[in-house]
Amino acid sequence: MADDGDGRLRTEGSSDGGLGSGGAGEPPAGAAAAVVGGEMLLNVGLLALALLAAYRLYLRWGTRSGPGGAARQSQAAALPRMKRRDFSLEQLREFDGARNPRILLAVNGKVFDVTKGSKFYGPEGPYGIFAGRDASRGLATFCLDKDALRDEYDDLSDLNAVQMESVREWEMQFKEKYDYVGRLLKPGEEPSEYTDEEDTKDHTKQE
To answer: What span is annotated as the signal peptide, if there is one (predicted)?
Structure first.
């Protein structure tokens, strides 16, 4: 045997660079049919696996937005727009979608009302761990578990430049998609007093 230069092996003396037609190395017709049948079975098996995976994903996430999820979304849609105010960490935790139908989270010191995204940020959503919490560290480090949460105010001072840039990018995305409702207060910081005019003006700017 020899390598014909394109990675295929040919039999010495073969005129077509492979196993010659009708040569001693040609598989019988029954074997060829078996190979074709095997490929078809493999394709059917792969399709079945793909459908099974899709069904499991539907069971995991699709059913979560079933009657209960639909009721929560309907309730969220009926909530009036939240007036501007500032929040301590303790006050923010009340708005986790379970104790209170409204869902808030903080990013880079800003608090956003993400209630309309309850299928993502609600108690059963993929990002539900951030509901009522400061999500900055989790978003910066792509961590979706309790290691990303702090029970005390997190100044993010240990994050590197790339992670801080990620936090700022997330903040901009939330500003574009959700209502900004106030600041996350540092320990000992007093809340601001917002006038109705300021509140209306900023909401109009967001729209």
So the answer is: none
